[in-house]
Amino acid sequence: MTGRSDESGEPTATATDRGESVRRLDDWDGAFLRSLAAEYETPLYVLDLDRVRANYRRLASAFPDADICYAAKANALGDVLETLLAEGATIECASAGEVQRALAAGASGDRIHYTAVNPPERDLEYVLDVWADEPHLTITAGARDTVERLADAGYDGRLALRVNPGVGAGHHDAVRTGGDATFGIPADRLVGVAEFAVESGLDLVGLHAHVGSGVLDDEQVAAHREFVGRVAALAEDILSAVGPVDFVDVGGGFGVPYRESESPLDLDAVAGATRDALVGVDADLVVEPGRYLVADAGLLLTRANTVKETPGTRVVGVDAGMTSLLRPALYDAYHDIRPVAPGAADRDRVAQTITGPICESADVFCTDRPLPRIDREEPLAVGNAGAYGYEMASTYNSRPRPASVVVDAGSVSLARRRESIDDLTRLERNRADAGTERAPGAAERAADGTSPATDGGSSTEVDE
Length: 464
Ligand code: LLP
Prior knowledge:
Shape: globular
Radius of gyration: 23 Å
Helix content: 25-40%
Largest sheet: 9 strands, mixed
Strand content: 15-25%
Bound molecules: ligand LLP
Oligomer: single chain
Number of helices: 13
CATH class of the domain at 48-294: Alpha Beta
């Protein structure tokens, strides 16, 4: 689970020296989680910034010469971006919104890579506006068309080309990006687009590719090895056609174990394969981890509302659902779930189905999973929710998104208040203060059981 042994049986300088390479749900302190659920109420995202730092340092020590470019889409909370910027990361941004959040967290342009995936005009305009003040930012284009749009808009700044290397890997079909025609320039067109970019006056500084997300087991690591091999060959093609580039960015995809039975990623194997593949390529290495840095730094606290015995299964309804954490509904993703009451682990285990409060059959966190018998009103923790949790949350069924707290050097603070019903309606014509003519906060209490006094923000406040 942590360090491995060499032939002498002594632990080698691997994960042990870089901190625990995996954090399971059981490693969180139950009393601490109960106190958070009581104080901040549920559903509640909890993110441990010390763990984010430890994950960053472990990855950085496996890739000592690489620039680590954090994929903000995994968790774009300002505290996370600030923490990783302070560690030395650059930030990979998938939209104008993420660029704006990176800037707000203190990133200078040279620490921003904007990956333009089918970029809406509004995004390009915003990023070009930022570029006027921050000339060292990098734009990654995945289509000749995007290069053309940039050139037409007068962009002659730093450009990376994203290539589709034709091989993907990941935890689900929906995230095996590397082989998906949607993403990147087809490999056989890459040199032509590179020549076009240079002729158009853009400063071609990098080559980019991303294999997919959730590379973990040996088969996926092997696919990743093939992927970096292809990227290296494509980098050579670019070098001989248009000259050297500053960097080769091999994307993210570093997986974490969601199941107890899964082992952590063999980071040294992935780093070694990447180094070997790129050894002859005279360019800096960039990696773009998202999940690896934040997944096990976070969890979601929820509470059982309803317990129902049915002929087939015991159904436990909780106050978080697919609107708080979409991954189980979207990818059939596994997340560990535990009641956090004292002694809960010693209770009888029974098959339980955990559902959310959304009117959708897909609103299920797990089906018939053997878990300690859960009581109504007790708090539960859902593990590995730090990546692609809050970021993929929605307000479907008019369900406000959870609050988020961060833990930093042992102290807890509210990083983002709970959304309120008024937040949901304030963009509607003539609805800016919906709910406020009635008892302030009543709607929120009715809807999600929170109390505005403890969720860190007035339910009736309106920013605009
Ligand atoms: N770089 C690029 C260009 C990406 O598109 C992504 C993720 C990453 C880096 C970071 O990948 P990571 O290291 O986190 O695997 N919502 C899905 C994951 C989608 C990932 C999309 N792109 C999930 O919850 O599993």
